[in-house]
Amino acid sequence: MTSTALRLEDTRRAIARRIVEHIRNDTSDLGAAPMLNHPSVYTDPARHALERQKLFRETPLVVCLSADLAEPGSFRTFDETGVPIFVVRDVKGQVRAYLNICVHRGARLVRSAQGQAKAFTCWFHGWTYDTTGALRGAPEKERFGQCVRDRHLIEVPAGERCGLVFVQATPGSHMDLDAHLGGFARELEILELGRAELVKSGTMPVKSNWKYALDTYGEGYHAIALHRESLGPLFRCDISIFDTYGPHFRIHFVEHSMKEWLNSPEDEWNAVDRLGGIHYIFPNTIIFAGKVKPGRKFYQLFRHFPGEAVGETTTHQSIYAPSGVTSDEYRHEVEQSLDDTRYVVENEDYVAAAEGWSNLKHLPREQTIVYGRQEMALQHMHRTFAERIGMPLPVAG
Question: Is residue 283 within 8 Å of 55, Cβ to Cβ?
C-alpha cells in the first residue's frame, strides 16, 4: 500500500471512529451557537457585484482537474467569471492561462470549448500564437512594422496543486496557491485527483443567488424532508462530521447502515471504501467522493458561478473515475451516478433554492434568517465570504 493510500486509510478510519461515537451517543458535530443572517446577503446587487470581483476575479478558482489537460497542447476555455480566458498546457508541460483575446483587434481567439492544438489562430485576421502566448505569425506582418515585435497574449495567473488546475481571472495579479489551500492541500492530496478520468459533464442553471444554491451542498438537515424519497432513506440527517481548514472545509454525512459498525471490530468497517464526503474549496467548488457499489467509486466536481444578475447561477457538474475507467460497465455506472445526482439537484435542491431565493425579497426589512448549530458549514461560508469581500454581514451572530 502506498503512503498516500495509508494516509487516506488513517484519515477515514479516524472519521469513522468519530461517526461511531456520535451514533453511540446520539450526538453530532455542531456549531457553537445558531447564527442570524439577513436576507440581503442573497439579494443585494452591490454585495453581489463585490463578490463577483473579489471572490471570482481576485481569488484562485478551480477550472478542472489536471487530467483534463493531460498532454501539451490540451486546452479549454474558461468564461465563467465573466472574463474570457483559455487555459492550455504548454510544450514544456506547464499550465498557462491567457485572456481569450487576440491582441490585434480584440477578437475571441479560441472558439472551441476544449481540444488539442499546437498553436491558436484568430479566425478574424489569422494571427497565430503558440502555447506560450507568443505571436508566431500574422498575414502581411511587415506592414505592422515594429508594432508586432513584442505582441503577446495577455497572461493571467494559473497553476496546479493536488491534481487541480487553478486560475485567477485578473491579469497582473499575484496568485499564491500554497497560501490559498494551506493545510487543506494535505486533505486533497490523499484523493489522488491526478489519477482521475473524466467520464461525463454538464451544466445546471438555477434562478437563485449563487450562495443560496451553494448552501444546499453544505448541510444534510434538509435531506429528511426535501429528499425524503431519494437520499433521505439512506442517511441519518442529524449527524455530520465537520472540519475546517482556513476558508475550506470537509463534511461527512452518516449512512444508516453505519450503525452496524457499533457491533463489529474496527478492522471490519472498511471505512476507506464506505466513506466519501464533501470537500469544499473556497469560494465555489465542491468535490463529492461517492461510490456506485463497493470498490467502484467516483468523484463529482460541482463549480458554482454567479451570473451578472444577483439571481442567476450556473453550476458546472463533472464526474470522474478516480483511478480511470476499467470497464464499459463501470463507465455506465459512473455516468448513471451523474444523471441520478443531476435529477435530484435539479428537481429537488434547485427547485427549493429558486423558490426560497425568490421569496426573500418579500420579507420585512427587519426579518432575519437563521442557520442552526447543525448548519455549521453555512455559518462558516457566510462569515468567510463577508470577511473576504470586506463587507460585514448585516446581522451579527
Answer: yes
Residue 396 grid coordinates:
451579527
Cell matching residue 356: 426560497
Q: Taking the model in full, what pTM does it have?
A: 0.96
Buried b (16+ CB within 10 A) or exposed e, 207-216: bbbbbbbbbb
Q: Is 69 inside any structural domain?
A: yes
Same domain for 366 and 384, yes or no, is: yes
295, amino acid identity: G
* Owning domain of residue 93: 61-174
Residue 94 C-alpha cell reads as 506547464
50 and 77 share one domain: no
Grade residue 8 by pLDDT with cuts at 50, 70 and 90.
confident
Contact present, 110 and 102 (Cβ < 8 Å):
no
Question: Per-residue pLDDT tens for 237-290?
Answer: 899 999 999 999 999 999 999 999 999 999 888 887 778 889 999 999 999 999
Residues 6 or more apart whose CB falls under 8 angstroms from that of 393 comprise 37, 38, 41, 382, 383, 386
Q: What type of residue is 292?
A: V
Copy the grid coordinates of residue 297: 467509486
